[in-house]
Amino acid sequence: MTEISAFFDQLWIARFVILKGLGVTVSISLLSIIAGSLLGVLVGLSLVYGNRLLRLVVRAYTDFIRGTPVLVLVLASYYVLSTIGIELGPFQAGVLALAIFCSSHVGEIVRGGLQAIPKGQTEAAKAIGLTFRQTFAYVLWPQALRQFLPAWVNTAAEMVKASTLLSVIGVAELLLRTQEIISRNFLSLQFYFFAGLLYFTINYGIERFGKYVERKTAVPS
């Protein structure tokens, strides 16, 4: 009981530090997921409907980013960009790196979802006089969304976990705050377990959001 009491005492003392770290983690994750998803949709559309040159350029971008470790992207966004006159703070550089990484994965997810739709769907839409924009909005996108939503949820969860890497450039997210607390009270196991529980809660919320959207977009039986 002594160790448990000591942990809760230290947890209460450090509650504001943990909440600040949690807020930074949620903010970074949310911004990178939104920005990465929007850019990823453009990447996916370019891979499917772009001209040959555009497809080659976007394919090179996607393969390069997907093959690059997230930590390298984080360090490049913070240190390399500054050498060419683009000064970003740790928070901005971290969001940029994660958003770029997210976009490459979402782009592939969107591409796969769109290409899985039978071509007859597009031809039928043309036959009834729909423009490409109408075909995409009312025929292709709803079907693709239902197909790639589970994969998008996994990517979003990966962005939350990848946010822990931003501590190397000084972003005071949840993991770095937890390490600072541990350096003062040496309750490593307890606080790392608590941090893991908070990360699980965030990802569980993402998973439940994905299920909610999946239900809303499901075809009525």
From TrEMBL:
This is Polar amino acid transport system permease protein. It is a multi-pass membrane protein. Gene3D superfamilies: MetI-like. Keywords: Cell membrane, Membrane, Transmembrane, Transmembrane helix, Transport. Belongs to the binding-protein-dependent transport system permease family. HisMQ subfamily. InterPro entries: AA_ABC_transptr_permease_3TM (IPR010065), ArtM/GltK/GlnP/TcyL/YhdX-like (IPR043429), MetI-like (IPR000515), MetI-like_sf (IPR035906). It is found in: Cell inner membrane; Cell membrane. The lineage of its organism: Bacteria, Pseudomonadati, Pseudomonadota, Alphaproteobacteria, Hyphomicrobiales. One of its GO terms (molecular function) is transmembrane transporter activity. Residues 22-210 form the ABC transmembrane type-1 domain. PANTHER family: ABC TRANSPORTER MEMBRANE-SPANNING PERMEASE-GLUTAMINE TRANSPORT, MEMBRANE COMPONENT OF AMINO ACID ABC TRANSPORTER. One of its GO terms (biological process) is amino acid transport. One of its GO terms (cellular component) is ATP-binding cassette (ABC) transporter complex. The chain crosses the membrane at residues 26-49, 61-81, 186-206.
